[in-house]
Amino acid sequence: MLDDLDRRLLRRWQADPDLHVTELAAEIGIHQSVATRRIDRLREAGVLRGVHGVIDWKALGYAVEVSLRFTLEKSSPRALDRFLAAAEGIPEVVEMQTFLGRVDVRLAVVARDLGHWQTLYRDRILTLPHIADIEALMQVARVKTDAVLPV
Predict the structure, then answer these.
(1) Which CATH architecture has domain 4-44?
(2) Distance between CA 138 and CA 16 in Å, rounded?
């Protein structure tokens, strides 16, 4: 699906997503119209789904990050849907994933400090529907975060 030019475009844009298409084309040695057509084709194919800003939560005062793993009770046929809908309503939940296996859902949650985390956990997390079990993993350090795909 991707040829060498597509890969060069994607590698360079991943390295610096702030590049304007004119700069991107110049850096890889092609005409701007070629770069624009290629990028449009990659978007239409669903390879490029948009440009995202990356927020440094710590710079905004959120010093605590917790990964919560949930096992849900499954006596209700819509338990997962109800749980996800309720969790989506918590602004501090910055990521939600579902799984097959013992763990059903993982939430990434940020908090300003341990006091905020305790309140959030007690008043919002523990009130989510259909929880059978929770495992909380408090992040100590982020060793690697890389959304760049080796194309």
Answers:
(1) Orthogonal Bundle (1.10)
(2) 31
Q: Where are the domains of the chain?
A: 4-44, 57-138
Side-by-side strand order, sheet with 93-98? 93-98, 105-111, 64-72, 131-138
59-114 residue pLDDT tens: 999 999 999 999 999 888 899 999 999 999 999 999 999 999 999 999 999 999 99
The residue count for the chain: 151
Taking only the tens place, the pLDDT of each residue in 1-21 is: 899 999 999 999 888 888 999
Question: Which residues are CB-contacts of 45 (< 8 A; sequence separation ≥ 6)?
Answer: 1
Task: Find, among 120, 127, 123, the residue nearest to 66 by Cα.
Answer: 120
- pTM to 2 decimal places: 0.77
Q: What is the DSSP letter of 98?
A: E
DSSP secondary-structure letter at 59? G
In the chain, helix, strand, coil percent, each to 5? 40, 20, 40
Structure tokens at 15: 């390295």
